[in-house]
Amino acid sequence: MKSLFACIALLLPQAVLAAQPIELSSQVFVERKVAKPDGKIAVILEAPKTVVPGDDLVFVLKYRNVGSAPANDISVTNPMPKAVIFNGTADGSEMVSVDGGRNWGALSTLKLPMKNGQYRPAEVADVTHVKWKLNQSLSVGSEGNLIFRGKVR
């Protein structure tokens, strides 16, 4: 599990289209369910100390325009750690790749070749990268978050 933690700790947004002055940072949290004294279950996010197969992870990518002019046509690409299964985004606005970033689309539209020459529908476990295209201009100093979820294999 140390290698998984190292992989998660090094996870950073990979690319921003054009030479825009966009600052990117990332955080990862483990989602835990904890019983409260009243018997209700609370969902908490905590820094990962130890992760085990089946743990739910929440990845938060923060972007901010640190330039002196609005930024346009922003695209952020993030690789999925091999030990993590993609489990969706906060708003469903992402595109995914199942072939290392060569092809992109909604997961439901992607297919993978099989050994017999046929194709099968891609599944969440096949996702290798997640990409967002911000469809609005980002004014100076503006910031936001992109969130995706995963499950430790």
Quick rundown:
5% of the residues lie in helices and 45% in strands.
Characterise the protein shown here:
By secondary structure, the protein is mainly β. It is 5% helix and 45% strand. The protein is built from 1 helix and 11 strands; from the N terminus they run H-E-E-E-E-E-E-E-E-E-E-E. It has one helix at 2-9, and strands spanning 15-16, 22-35, 41-46, 56-65, 74-79, 84-89, 95-97, 111-113, 119-121, 129-134, 143-152. The strands form 3 sheets. The protein has a 5-stranded antiparallel β-sheet, with no helix packed on it. Strand 8 and strand 9 form a beta hairpin. The longest helix has 8 residues, at 2-9. The chain is flat and about 50 Å long. Residues 5-12 have low confidence and may be disordered.
Residue-averaged pLDDT: 87
| Widest sheet, order of strands | 3-2-4-11-6
Low-confidence stretches: 5-12
H/E series: HEEEEEEEEEEE
Task: Give the helix proportion (percent range).
Answer: under 10%
Count of helices? 1
Beta-strand fraction estimate: over 45%
**Main sheet characteristics:** 5 strands, antiparallel
Over the alpha carbons, how many angstroms does the gyration radius reach? 17 Å
Q: Please report the total strand number as a whole number.
A: 11
Structural class: mainly beta
Compute the separation of the termini in Å: 11 Å
What is the global morphology? flat
